[in-house]
Amino acid sequence: QKEVEQNSGPLSVPEGAIASLNCTYSDRVSQSFFWYRQYSGKSPELIMSIYSNGDKEDGRFTAQLNKASQYVSLLIRDSQPSDSATYLCAVTHAGAGSYQLTFGKGTKLSVIP
Amino acid sequence: ETGVTQTPRHLVMGMTNKKSLKCEQHLGHNAMYWYKQSAKKPLELMFVYSLEERVENNSVPSRFSPECPNSSHLFLHLHTLQPEDSALYLCASSHDPGQGDSPLHFGNGTRLTVT
Description:
The complex is a heterodimer of chains A (113) and B (115). In chain A, 0% of the residues lie in helices and 53% in strands. Chain A contains no helices and 11 strands. In chain A, strands 2, 4, 5, 9, 10 and 11 form a 6-stranded mixed sheet that branches. In chain A, strands 1-3-8-7-6 form a 5-stranded antiparallel sheet, with no helix packed on it. Chain A is globular, with a radius of gyration of 14 Å. Chain B contains no helices and 11 strands. In chain B, strands 2, 4, 5, 6, 9, 10 and 11 form a 7-stranded mixed sheet that branches. A 4-stranded antiparallel sheet of chain B has the order 1-3-8-7, with no helix packed on it. The chains are: A mainly beta (113), B mainly beta (115). At the A-B interface, strand 5, strand 9 and strand 10 of A face strand 5 and strand 10 of B.
């Protein structure tokens, strides 16, 4: 069974620090990787996508992918209280046209002012 | 209006009721999805439609019946539900994954409580 594992947290970081969120996946041939942010009582919203090994930066967010280690991470620089949310890692299964997107349980991040 | 819209936002129903959840997307996407989100569990994919054809059905009980009349609208018909079906039901849409980059865009969800 294809799985996506995340530390459920809560992960607490002080305001202005770097928050590091980690995710591992079991399907070695997974191709697309996404990070979603979900505020309490709200729906998930996409914040980053990454498809190839290495780093991808977008503002204060950096996604890192290591397919050999089956590991994807999200770094949030200069963390703000508004970043406090649950972060969901999602991975697509192999195969062109695959609709199966497997989510982790999410990591709850708390940024302390 | 843009994005993915779901109605109702909240629904309380008894186990013998019949109700429907509605989803509408204004993003020009080809694929639409129903997900279930329960406390302390990952998002669970229930159904996927691509160009109004059902392409995924993840062993969902028959008391949940999806309907996709066109590429912009998706329904989830509910009948004889159980209390354990209480959850947040999320609709999402995307471009056809076969076209490459196709992340999901979610609606705000329907919070369902079965009494």
